[in-house]
Please model this.
Amino acid sequence: MRIFDPHIHMTSRTTDDYRRMAAAGVRAVVEPAFWLGQPRTNPGSFADYFDSLLGWEPYRAGLFGIRHHATIALNPKEANDPRCRPVLDLLPRYLDKDGVVAVGEIGYDSMTPEEDDAFARQLALAIEHDLPALVHTPHRDKARGTRRTLDVAAESGIPPGRVLVDHLNELTVEIVKESGCWMGFSIYPETKMSPPRMVEILRRHGPERVLVNSAADWGHSDPLLTLETARAMLDAGFDADDVDRVMWSNPVEFFGQSGRLDLSGADQPEPAFQGSSILRGGS
Amino acid sequence: MDAYGLLDVLGQDWVTEARAEVARRPGAIGRHFASAGRRAGRAPLDGAPGWRADEAARALLLAALPPEDLTERVAVLYAEGTADEKLAVLKALPLLPVGAEAVLLLRDAIRTNDARLLRAALGPSARHLDQAAWRQAVLKCVFTGVPLDGVHGLDERADAELAVMLAGLAGERAAAGRAVPADAAALLDRLTQQKEARCASSTRTST
Model:
């Protein structure tokens, strides 16, 4: 089974996670820029973070035969901090880069005017840089937040087929499906979405335009819940093609719209330096 | 291989056009440099051993920059670069009229834990590194498993102090039941033999 995790914050995960993910069949990941738990206080802090998403992380992933791409944006939460707003001016040079396959995560956290502005400006940047958009939906007031997300996306002029609306559940899936946007589901150990609930949603709505991710980060999360969901699909009677569509072909199709997805050698560990110290545990 | 040879082997028209634009308007290099991977591809170049297509395209863009401000522009592209972009800058250094100013880039690359950058920093431009920094970089190659065949002029520059450092690492490894890579053990052997030969000759002279 091949797995493409379209939303995982590897910066917060250990090298041991990469090893377990590779063994479980994860061959490609997309790491969206988000917040880090500790608020940042200046744009330089973001630049170092973005550089890491395009430098160190792809290298670290490559050592385990996992292809790593990123999405870049000022996240909704920190868009509210005036000290972080100048990050918007840094974005154009990052959005030109090869490893960047979407603008994201953008969208709403608390639905403030500052978030409205950052969301609209970054949707415009997605259009300008010919990139899809990865849109986070709020954890509080989710249904109304998702509705507003779809309205703002439609208003921007970006085609719905180039928008992935993430962290959906039973109450938000329908309106996103109707909008023509792609539907993302984050499988978490306790919150957001579970494998059995995900299977039920797939049964009801089908696998078209559906992406499943672990959204694993520094919180209580598990990078192997994509695999567990795939197994739950098989147990529930979905065939291997359905599983492959959700776990591989759909993310490839969505992020492939960037023209920057490079999956060559997606199952080959970097051959040159097998003794490299991060594999061995040195420094 | 010089820039013209590389251009010939790469054989991509867009690079020729982008180089002309960069020569006229150096500020145009940013977007070309950032998108070179998806435009050129990443396949190894048959006619240019050690070069991938994207690296060659980026090196050729850098080589098209006018000499004024070249060092500053190269430094910014490196500083703001992805790992692939940084690697291309390091590989391009021998093709560019950048002198000792390259040291800051080399030192940055050597500080990273990206084996590709470390290896690239020890190419011909490493002549600008002082001996202490160069020895530490070579030792880091051994420590992190980067093959020494990429170290430019290894035997000419390896000295008695490097031999002491390699012997120390080999001793630590032996204590842990591990070996140093074969190329490092071989280098240590050569350095030890040279030292013994020198000692023998100085003993003969003194008696």
